[in-house]
Specification:
The protein has 5 helices and 9 strands, in the order βαβββββαβαβαβα. Helix content is 36%, strand content 32%. By secondary structure, it is an alpha/beta fold. α2 runs parallel beside α3. It has one domain: P-loop containing nucleotide triphosphate hydrolases (Rossmann fold, 3-Layer(aba) Sandwich), CATH 3.40.50.
Length: 172
């Protein structure tokens, strides 16, 4: 299998949960980041980036000001660049596994993010991440890269995908 394993699928299928569970089970030295919803009274207000070493930043929110917007969310590209990109760059130097969750519409507003994703893919290090399900020129290019294997996650195949991730993580 390729050095890069990306999960794709519709929102809410558990892609991030699978990544977190797999990393917990294997206990591998990982760096990078994942995204998490910000909710208030059960309603999604935005998204935050959480690095694997515990730093957090708001990626997008309905109540922040930004010239960048995806759906109803205003995207803070500067915070993505400060926290998300630096987490990937640090993982490139220090970790065996790089986590990039997610290569999605909001993150792809940053050309710097796109550059560091390509740099990570070309590094030869293992990358476990998520990529947007719908078509996007950069995301489609990543999915076609010879070093990338993409698994589509659904409610029905969650356990099977987890087994594939665990097997992939345990290979050299």
């Amino acid at each position: 299998m390729a050095k890069v394993l990306l999960l794709s699928g519709k929102p809410g299928t558990g892609k991030t949960s699978l990544i977190k569970e797999a990393i917990d089970r294997v206990k591998i030295e990982a760096g990078g980041f994942y995204t998490q919803e910000i909710r208030s009274a059960g309603v999604r207000q935005g998204f935050k980036i959480i690095t694997l070493d515990g730093k957090e930043a708001i990626l997008a929110h309905i109540n922040i000001s930004s010239p960048y917007q995806v759906s109803k969310y205003n995207v803070d590209i500067d915070r993505l660049n400060e926290v998300g990109i630096s987490a990937i760059q640090q993982a490139l130097k220090q970790n065996d596994l790089i986590v990039i969750d997610e290569i999605g519409k909001m993150e792809l507003l940053s050309l710097q993010f796109q550059e560091v994703v390509l740099q990570a893919i070309q590094s030869g290090k293992k990358i476990l991440g998520t990529v947007m399900f719908t078509s996007h020129p950069f995301a489609d290019e990543v999915k076609r890269h010879p070093e990338v294997t993409t698994l589509v996650v659904s409610g029905a195949n969650r356990n099977e995908v987890l087994s594939e991730i665990l097997a992939w993580l345990q290979t050299a």
